[in-house]
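Homework help board

Subject: predicted structure for assignment chain

Our instructor gave us this sequence and asked us to write out the predicted structure in token form, then describe one feature. I got the tokens but I'm not sure how to describe them. Can anyone check?
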Amino acid sequence: IVTKTLIPVTMHNITFTGDAAGCAPGNTTVKDGSDYSFQLSNTEAGYTYTVTVGGESLTSDENGKYTVKNIKADTEIVITKALAAETTVEVKDYVTKANGKQVKLVLVKGELAEGKVFAYGGEAMFYSEQYQAWAYLDIAAGTDAFTAETARAKVSTVAGTVEARTIARTFDVNGSGTVDINDAQLAYDIYKPEMYTDFSAVSVRKFLNADVNGSYSVTTEDAAAVVAEIK
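My token output:
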């Protein structure tokens, strides 16, 4: 007597995680002992992508295909993205505030995908015609701990247009549409250590407008330049 029993097929789950998991084809299942291949899609210009399995990097072939071989258990594939090395990030001392706080100017230059703008801490940055770079401000408790690498970790991209985020060189610090003594006063108040120690009362855009002479910092010279422009 010969009987035949179907051997059950063992299947394993493939899951994608990481901040760029959406670039993978999606979760699936594979047969025990088989290979699993996939390609990344919807990748964004200005980023490099890293694929790891079990903490080990996975490299694509010449056609951009990644393959995980001989899968014997549920497998997590982690896909992360980081700013490309060609994206430069600089940090400059913008203005000193009370209690040792420093307003830091963060400048970013690099390639952007269509319909994207650089962001800092999730907030869209401003393209400064004076600096010829994307600009934003951060407030640090000291001068040494806040570096370009510190800032780089907070830089990403979000949907937006250059036109909507451009800051032109004007003397209209408060954005009223008219250059008057109020603009000079605001520039001077932004310079003063005890005034505006955060961006709750005066926005980042107005802080950036205060550097009317393009020196990468706010000083009394900026207020004087506004007064000269009024005259």
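Reply (TA_rk): Your tokens look well-formed. For the description, you could write something like this. The chain has a mean pLDDT of 94. That's the kind of observation they're looking for.
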